[in-house]
TrEMBL record:
InterPro entries, alphabetized: Aliph_Amidase/BUP (IPR050345), C-N_Hydrolase (IPR003010), C-N_Hydrolase_sf (IPR036526), RamA-like (IPR044083)
CDD domains, sorted: R-amidase_like
Name recorded for this polypeptide: Carbon-nitrogen hydrolase family protein
One annotated GO molecular function: hydrolase activity
Keywords tagged on the record: Hydrolase
Domain (CN hydrolase): residue spans on this chain: 3-237
Domain of life, source organism: Bacteria
Lineage: Bacteria, Bacillati, Bacillota, Bacilli, Bacillales
Signal peptide stretch: none
Gene source species: Ferviditalea candida
C-alpha cells in the first residue's frame, strides 16, 4: 500500500491563530493538489511555540473553532491531517497533536508526554500512548522531545504502529541529533517515522526545519532544508514486511530482563 505524506514545514506567527490557520489552509491546498493522503504540521503550529502566560487563553478543546475549521478543510480536501496545538482537556492544558480523518472526523488527540525545559510551567504531561487504526495503516504520534526517548517509539511499535508521526518545534544546535534520532526510531522499531519541524525565530530561539521521513531500514526517504516549504513523499507500507524479515527486533526482545529499566532513577 502506498501512502503520500505531505510535510508542511511552516513558520507559525506567535499568538496569531488566524494567520496560522490561513497558512495551514494554503499548505492543505498544496497537499491536495499533489494528491497527498496525509498532511503533517509542526508542534504548536496553531499558536507559535513561546505562548508562555497566554497558553491557557489560546488553548482549545476538540470543539474549538480552530480545530473545527481544520476539520472542515480536511473534509474538503479529503486529507488526513495532524497538527499541533495547546489543548484544553479536563481542566488542564496540554501540548497536543490532533489527528483528523480525511472525512473531517476527529480521530483523537495525543498529549505530549516528555516536556522540554520550561514547557512544564505551562503544560501538563500526557499519560498514555495512542495508536489509531486508519485507512492508511496504524498511526502513532509523538511530539518533538518525545522522539529523543527510545521508549516512546518502541511502545508505539509494540502497540502496532506502522507509521509514527512527530510534529516538532526543534531548535539549533540540534540539527544532527534530530536527523539521527528519526532514523534510529525508524530502524530500531522497523516502522516509518516522519517529522515536520517548524522554522523561524521566536525570542532568541531559531527553529531549523529539516523535516524528514525515515523508512523501516533507517534510511532517509526525505531530508528537507531550512526554508518554509511543503514536501511530498510517497512511502510503501510493504517495506514493513521486508524490513521485519531479519533482524526481528520486536520478536527478539527479552522484556523479562528489562524490569530494572523502569526502576532505575
Amino acid at each position: 500500500m502506498n501512502v503520500k505524506l505531505f510535510l508542511a514545514q511552516m513558520e507559525p506567527i506567535l499568538y496569531d491563530k488566524q494567520a496560522n490557520l490561513e497558512k495551514m489552509h494554503r499548505f492543505m491546498q498544496q497537499a491536495a493538489q499533489g494528491q497527498a493522503d496525509l498532511i503533517l504540521f509542526p508542534e504548536l503550529c496553531l499558536t507559535g511555540y513561546f505562548t508562555r502566560d497566554r497558553t491557557a487563553e489560546l488553548s482549545e478543546d476538540e470543539t474549538g473553532s480552530s480545530i473545527q475549521q481544520v476539520a472542515d478543510w480536511a473534509r474538503q480536501f479529503k486529507l488526513m491531517t495532524v497538527f499541533g496545538f495547546p489543548e484544553r482537556r479536563d481542566g488542564l492544558i496540554y501540548n497536543s497533536a490532533c489527528l483528523i480523518n480525511h472525512d473531517g472526523s476527529i480521530l483523537g488527540t495525543y498529549q505530549k508526554i516528555h516536556l522540554w525545559d520550561e514547557e512544564s510551567k505551562y503544560f501538563s504531561s500526557g499519560e498514555s500512548f495512542h495508536v489509531w487504526d486508519t485507512e492508511m495503516g496504524r498511526i502513532g504520534i509523538m511530539i518533538c522531545y518525545d522522539t529523543e526517548f527510545p521508549e516512546t517509539a518502541r511502545i508505539l511499535a509494540l502497540k502496532g504502529a506502522e507509521i509514527i508521526l512527530a510534529p516538532t518545534a526543534n531548535m539549533s544546535p540540534f540539527e544532527h541529533a534530530q536527523s539521527v534520532q528519526i532514523q534510529c526510531r525508524a530502524v530500531e522499531n522497523q516502522v516509518f517515522v516522519a517529522t515536520t519541524n517548524r522554522i523561524g525565530t521566536e525570542e532568541s530561539t531559531r527553529f531549523f526545519g529539516e523535516s524528514s521521513v525515515a523508512d523501516p531500514f533507517g534510511k532517509h526517504v526525505l531530508l528537507g532544508n531550512q526554508e518554509e516549504k511543503g514536501y511530498l513523499v510517497q512511502i510503501d507500507l510493504t517495506d514493513l514486511n521486508m524490513a521485519r524479515r531479519f533482524p526481528k527486533y520486536l520478536d527478539d526482545r527479552r522484556p523479562e530482563l528489562y524490569a530494572n529499566l523502569a526502576e532505575c532513577d
